[in-house]
Amino acid sequence: MSGIQGYRALSHGKVILIGEHSAVYGEPAIVLPLHEAQLSAHLKIRNDSVRTIDCEYFHGLIDDAQDNLRNIQVLINRLSRDFSLDGVGFDLSITSSIPHARGMGSSAAVAVAIIRVFAQLAERSINFAQEFEYAQIAENIAHSRASGMDSAAVASDSAVWFKRDETISTFGFETPGILVVADTGITGQTRTAVSDVRSLMQSPAMSIAHKAFEGINRLGQLAYDCAQYLRQCELSQLGIAMNQAHDILSELSVSSAELDTLVKSARNAGALGAKLTGSGRGGCIITLAENGDKADTISHALRKSGAVRLWQVPLISKGIR
């Protein structure tokens, strides 16, 4: 959109269906776009060279933003240079329904929306690979060595097959299933969770390290299994795999009482499967319902069990790349 109101671009969140933590060790993961949680970047051109940003964490001159927005500062400077926009003043506002620190790709969504709105301003056509590379500039600052999983999933409208150091691809499937995503309302603890899993993998106690390695390897195999179940519309088997994944993640110490409560509630309400999504120790769970009516029943049970936000996501993917 352009004109007197300026330029506006959208991005969305993501959820990991399978493969959290194991993807760190080279195993595959399946990541789904969460179109139901959106972020908007609105850019209005000024008559001077002043640049401001208005978002949840800061309002004012971009150059005066705190260190936690350095990723955005660097990205905007890079886009300005590459798109020949140096010296162009603007007011940039970010609004989002993607909760922060829930494993839903909120920082990558900010980056992708900014990339898209700058491309509109510069009248540039950019493809998925370019969006991904630009988003990684910001993500590598925000998260040190970002895997690229969030950038890929947020920039894609289809399910992403992600495996570190391999070409990112998407794949298609169509099922009657609904994923119900439930937020505990508790901030996830990504760095601590990843570090604690690494400690288990490197434990001097061989039995502990061996069990952790077995869990990671099993999560990798479950990702291959889940891709097949999705393509063949085997929802019951997909649900069983999700349950197994949650049990493994619990053994790896990355679940929490709040996550386990929601998982149990969903299963008792008839979910085919339920598991945490993301790094754990807070954040969200995903549950698999066989249809919309069952999804409503599960959603009601999750609200009663303490979920602060819910999203219902059709389990369908175009598979365009």
From TrEMBL:
Pathway: Isoprenoid biosynthesis; isopentenyl diphosphate biosynthesis via mevalonate pathway; isopentenyl diphosphate from (R)-mevalonate: step 1/3. Keywords: ATP-binding, Cytoplasm, Kinase, Lipid biosynthesis, Lipid metabolism, Magnesium, Nucleotide-binding, Transferase. GO terms for biological process: isopentenyl diphosphate biosynthetic process, mevalonate pathway. Residues 76-155 form the GHMP kinase N-terminal domain. It is found in: Cytoplasm. Residues 235-306 form the GHMP kinase C-terminal domain. This is mevalonate kinase. Its EC number is 2.7.1.36. Belongs to the GHMP kinase family. Mevalonate kinase subfamily. It comes from Alloscardovia theropitheci. Its main location: cytoplasm.
